[in-house]
Amino acid sequence: MKGFIAIFIVASISLITYSTFLSNHSGGFPDSPDKNIISFNHDSEFICDETNVSHILFGISGSVKTWNQRRQYSELWWKNEITRGFVWLDEKPATNMTWPEMSPPYKVSEDTSRFKYTSAYGSRSAVRIARIVKESFQLGLENVRWFVMGDDDTVFFVENLVTVLGKYDHNEMYYIGGNSESVEQDVIHSYTMAYGGGGFAISYPLAAELVRVLDGCIDRYASFYGSDQKIGGCMNEIGVPVTKELGFHQVDIRGDPYGLLAAHPVAPLVSLHHLDYVQPVFPGLTRIDSLKKLVQAYKLDPGRTLQHTFCYDPSSKWSLSVSWGYTAQLYPSLITAKDLATAFQTFVTWRSWSRGPFAFNTRLMSPDPCKRPAIYFLDRVHSIGAGQTVTTYKRFWAGPGKECGQEEYGSALPAMYINVTAAELEPDTWKKARRRQCCEIVNGSTAEANGLVQVRIRSCSRWESVTPAYGR
């Protein structure tokens, strides 16, 4: 009998201790507001539907003084009644200012004068912007899986953002974004943070933990220049590293972004930033009109936008490079795949306007026009049904004295247009191992007669490689 009583007492104490642990654990880790979640404990999995745009809450940093000049960037991608989020302003707009109908709704940030800021070359606005994620979280909106931060000059490609975030378990702690293109920026600020202008995403559980420590972090990292650097410091304290996705683009460059965009990595295009500081994406158009043209192609095939492919025509010894929805390059010779995959350096670094280094490989664009490819820019795009699109690229003429005058160069590249046919890229493609798609020049032998090169982009065969004829 005494043995039975002893066992009963021990079991009761164990049950009380276990119940106390569960109670404390639940209080320390906030529940996700996602109502699709059926259960949550250490031994079971979250059961939920796939991530969609309604699960994302955007937090855009803005200023009353600059919003009218910057809002065109947000209005390119914002969709009322579809995207969720707010522009966070530094002050309430004047009573005589009508908030633009196509802009995201706004909220006014809390006063941050109580926080320290000691950076000698920055702006106190970094404190306010760093707290946008906290103020967004504290709104308590339902069904939020991801908090996505960006600037008022960030252009998001929302469908691709959803595709990228859909690869990750939003019930885990994730901090997703990209670094600067300019090494000098990464060295000065950090390689271990996501750069805010290119945008970054924080999963709900990580946001819950970040909110708990953020205000203290802001004071501890008072000397840090930017809001994203302060967030990165907090992430180091929490212990969550940045998960880098190559489609987030800070665009920390100056000059012509052509080389960067024409050799996009094998990853969905998620964002572009700093577009006021580089030349227009398309020559002869304003910055906004250039982006509208790119978005026109994007709307027909989001996942394929800027996807880079290249192929050869053995009979004419041509090399062809296509950045879908943007540009094509035609070379009158066989160029290695390594060179074709490497970006032309049409730009300089962000801070010092130097010729490098960059966080990716570049190759020089020869000053001799006879050693450059013929360059084509998107002219039009349309759907031909059955999940197929055709994009047409028109030859770009740089002007007198800037084109190759050699007869053999002109006869080698007679085409005025390049037509590219492709199947729409399924979002599930990005859930598989990444591989650049292949292409083929359909009419190499007749292109000279009709001034048109016909190209087809397709999935590569199992044993297929992109190898010049001389290298087989």
Explain this structure to me?
The chain is an alpha/beta fold and 472 residues long. The chain folds into two domains: 192 residues, Spore Coat Polysaccharide Biosynthesis Protein SpsA, Chain A (Alpha-Beta Complex), CATH 3.90.550.50; 172 residues, no CATH class. Helices cover 27% and strands 21% of the residues. The protein has an eight-stranded mixed β-sheet with strand order 11-12-13-17-18-19-21-20. A seven-stranded mixed β-sheet has the order 3-2-1-4-7-6-8. Strands 5-10 form a two-stranded antiparallel sheet. α7 crosses α8. The longest helix has 27 residues. The termini are far apart. The N terminus is likely disordered.
Strand content: 15-25%
For the termini, the CA-CA separation is 87 Å
What integer value in Å does the Rg equal? 26 Å
State the total count of DSSP E strands: 21
Q: Report mean pLDDT, rounded to a whole number.
A: 89
Stated plainly, the CATH topology of the largest domain is called Spore Coat Polysaccharide Biosynthesis Protein SpsA, Chain A
Shape: elongated
Strand arrangement, major sheet? 11-12-13-17-18-19-21-20
Major β-sheet annotation = 8 strands, mixed
Give me the number of helical elements.
13
- Named CATH architecture of the largest domain: Alpha-Beta Complex
CATH class of the largest domain: Alpha Beta
Main attributes of the structure:
Spore Coat Polysaccharide Biosynthesis Protein SpsA, Chain A, 21% strand, alpha/beta, single chain, 21 strands, 2 domains
